[in-house]
Write a structure and sequence with these properties.
The chain is mainly β. The protein has one helix spanning 59-63, and strands at 2-3, 12-16, 19-22, 24-33, 41-52, 72-81, 88-89, 97-107, 113-119, 138-142, 193-203, 221-225, 239-243, 246-251.
């Protein structure tokens, strides 16, 4: 809050006779250490794309033009991200993608790497120079608990001249190598991987925020991605399984078999 002066209304919203609620930001950074079946992990990116068919039509489709096979299709492209430089994520809703920390060696029954998605709500990125941790929605890096223990500090905005640890430092040393930074080109293949996640929003005050601010929130979540062979809720107690309308199995109470 500040004293209301009409000349400064660009900095907030008038909420009382003599009070201006200033525009401000709420940002937080999280360090997420996922050890998927051990510490030999990889980062998998799954892109959702739309474009011309990339393969020759099967003979059956050529022989049956009435199938009306579209010239363009929606398809996915899975790639293993091998370098920290390729794992700096700025979410673009017109280029949808899923980011997953996975076991490099363990696969489920259907041949996919077992892992967990990090689902980000695509909150705004920072517009202020001080928020050194908020240049990207997500970063993936090798875990270095002694040298890269924290992404920032509670007083990040007070350390402008000497940031605790730059997220990405693109300056070069005299020998031409990349200088200090969490994301500095190291390998993400068979590594102990850490995800750095930035969340936040800009709060433009409104009259309803005075004297008590309405509920505001931000979040991310983790979700299994091919970690199981099927929905794990099927292993819950007192479950009846049906196939084609016939009960094929009953799991009694107390025999849950999920191992996380």
């Amino acid at each position: 809050m500040s004293y209301y002066d009409q000349s400064e209304e660009s900095f907030g919203t008038k909420v009382h006779d003599e009070a201006l609620a200033n525009v401000h930001a709420h940002f937080a950074a999280f360090k997420v250490d996922l050890d998927i079946l051990g510490q030999n992990n990889c980062v998998e990116k799954t892109e959702v794309k739309y474009g011309p068919r990339t393969e020759i039509l099967p003979e059956t489709e050529k022989d049956h033009p009435d199938l009306h096979v579209p010239e363009k299709n929606m398809y996915i492209r899975r790639t293993m991200v091998t370098s920290e430089d390729e794992a700096r994520v700025k979410i673009n809703n017109q280029a949808p993608a899923q980011w997953k920390v996975a076991s490099c060696s363990e696969k489920n029954r259907w041949g996919y790497h077992k892992g967990y998605d990090i689902i980000h709500p695509n909150t705004p990125l920072g517009i202020m120079d001080e928020a050194s941790f908020n240049d990207y929605h997500m970063l993936f890096s090798q875990r270095k608990e002694h040298d890269e223990e924290y992404l920032t500090t509670p007083v990040d905005f007070m350390t402008v001249s000497e940031p605790v640890l730059p997220v990405v430092d693109l300056t070069k040393t005299m020998d031409g190598s990349t200088a200090t930074g969490i994301s500095n080109g190291e390998s993400l293949n068979n590594a102990d991987i850490v995800a750095w996640i930035s969340l936040g929003f800009y709060h433009v005050p409104r009259a309803e925020d005075n004297p008590v601010t309405n509920l505001v929130s931000s979040h991310f979540r983790l979700a299994p991605n091919n970690y199981f062979d099927e929905n794990p809720s099927l292993d819950l107690g007192q479950t009846d399984r049906y196939r084609s309308g016939e009960k094929v199995e009953q799991i009694p109470t107390g025999e849950c078999s999920i191992g996380l």
